[in-house]
Amino acid sequence: MTASSTTTPAAPTTTILRQHAEHQFAEELAALQQADQRQRPTNWKLSPWAVVTYLMGGRLDNGFEIVPKYIGSQRLMEIAVSTLATDRALLLYGVPGTAKSWVSEHLAAAVSGDSTLLIQGTAGTSEEQLRYGWNYAQLLAHGPSEKALVPSPLVNAMRLGKIARVEELTRIPADVQDTLITVLSEKTLPIPELGSEVQATRGFSVIATANNRDKGVNELSSALKRRFNTVVLPVPATEDEEVSIVSRRVSDLGRALQLPAEPPALKEIRRVVQIFRELRNGQTEDGKTRIKSPSSTLSTAEAISVINSGMALAGHFGDGVLHAHDIASGLMGAIIKDPVQDQVVWKEYLETVVKERADWKELYRACREQL
Question: Which of 1, 20, 47, 276 has the fewest CB atoms lying closer than 10 Å?
Answer without folding.
Answer: 1
